[in-house]
Amino acid sequence: MARAEDKGRAGGKKGKDKKSCLVCVKGCCGGKGIVTFKEGVWHVNPVAVQVLGICSALAVTNRLENSLVMGAALVFVTVGSNLFVSLLRNVTPRRIRMIAEVAIIATFVIVFDQVLKAYYWEMSKQLGPYVGLIITNCIVMGRAEAFALSNRPVVSMVDGLANGLGYAAVLAIIGFFRELLGTGGLFGHQILSEAWYTPNQLVILAPGAFIGLGFLIAVFNWLSGANREEGAQP
Amino acid sequence: MSEISPFLILIAAIFTNNILLANFLGMCSFLAVSKQVDTALGLGAAVIFVTTMTTAINYGVYHFVLVPLGLTILQYIVFIAVIAAFVQFVEMFVERFSLKLYHALGIFLPLITVNCAILGVSLFMIIRSYSFWQSVAFGFGGGVGWMLAIVLIAGLRQKMGYSNVPRPFRGVAIAMVITGVMAMAFMGFAGMVNIQ
């Protein structure tokens, strides 16, 4: 299911990748955008494979709606911060690059937070401090540091988009199962009839989040065949 | 909210509202260092110190600088700057006065800046509108709770080196599952004291 969803997203994105490749100088990223995109969403998925940014992946996934908003927030912040870090990469002194990156990321987080507070107060209340905590989300910082600092702006944006979407997809999957099993409904509508399904409160609470993510990572490992040869340390 | 005594907040932050097991903060460095009990203890001690101090400083900065100037929307950027600066300062201070402690703590200090538990504690303090002593108790308790959780899990993960875990679960997946079981155990404390 995860694979189908990711493929659908990657396929839908190809058109824009081509366009963005026309913008940059011919040959500088011929096809690189698509490779970058596939990697971010599937092969090195930030949550399930690299295990980054799990704080929020666990905290906000008790409802599907929260998960989707959080995913959108991360896409916005990674794309924006990657673009600006990349634009400024040649004028940022190496010694203070961390502080510069944090300042850029925090700016985008503040913008998103203010928009959320202005137009979607209920959601802002529910997400609480976790929107602000995007600043310390390792995915955003990691992409800025590992990718945007050494790549052109357009490719960096694609990379940010891919990683953001990879994160959003995992959040949506966990949110879907937690809300469905925990309340028997989605978006507040009852789906599983109460006649035969008793909502399992534990799935909504903290242990459900940890165990759910553990199983999701295991499924990712199983599908991609990681751990098969080298026998990773437990 | 403001009537709860700081002591109750301290207990609640350690057991019933554990920052790692109930609020999911500080997971990134948690997974990286919870393989050995020794390193877990070292990082835990550093986190306790830094959360307590940065909560106190951030309280002052928020209530005496940001609120009077009407700049509360800048809280994220200011808090993270305070934390980064404080960690840097502690690192220089420790290096100058106690080389032994520096070597024991050294590698953990830079890790702490990006530990979401530190920023999370400061943000919770604002959202729940704690008074000064409540904030300090919450910061200290949050740090202790984080250390407790990470040391317990590190012990379990060390033991797990000898067990035969199904292949897809090896590594992070099983760590998440045992953290879930630990969170379930900590739910047993719920009802003792409760802070929002």
SSE layout and pairing:
The complex is a heterodimer of chains A (234) and B (196).
Chain A: H1 2-23, H2 32-43, H3 54-59, H4 64-87, H5 97-119, H6 121-127, H7 138-146, H8 153-183, E1 185-186, E2 189-190, H9 201-204, H10 206-224
Helix pairs in contact in A: 1-2, 1-8, 2-8, 4-5, 4-7, 4-8, 5-6, 5-7, 7-8
Chain B: H1 6-14, H2 27-33, H3 37-69, H4 75-97, H5 99-105, H6 108-113, H7 116-127, H8 132-160, H9 172-187
Could you please describe the fold and organization of this structure?
The complex is a heterodimer of chains A (234) and B (196). Chain A has helices spanning 2-23, 32-43, 54-59, 64-87, 97-119, 121-127, 138-146, 153-183, 201-204, 206-224; strands at residues 185-186, 189-190. Chain A has 234 residues and is mainly α. In chain A, strands 1-2 form a two-stranded antiparallel sheet. Chain B contains 9 helices and no strands.
Task: Provide a compact summary of the structure.
The complex is a heterodimer of chains A (234) and B (196). Helix content of chain A is 67%, strand content 2%.
How would you characterize the largest beta sheet of chain A? 2 strands, antiparallel
Radius of gyration of chain B: 17 Å
Instruction: List the total number of helices of chain A.
Output: 10
- DSSP E strands of chain A, number: 2
Low-confidence blocks of residues of chain B: none
**What is the strand content of chain A?**
under 5%
One letter per element, helices H and strands E, the order of chain A comes to HHHHHHHHEEHH
> In sequence order, what are the helices and strands of chain B, one letter per element?
HHHHHHHHH
Number of beta strands of chain B: 0
Task: Count every helix of chain B, treating DSSP H or I runs of 4 or more residues as helices.
Answer: 9
End-to-end gap of chain A: 27 Å
Give the structural class of chain B.
Answer: mainly alpha
Q: Mean pLDDT of chain A, rounded to whole units?
A: 73
Overall geometric form of chain B: globular
Strand order of the largest sheet of chain A: 1-2
Distance between the termini of chain B: 8 Å
Please give the share of residues in helix of chain B. over 70%
How many domains of chain B? The number is: 1
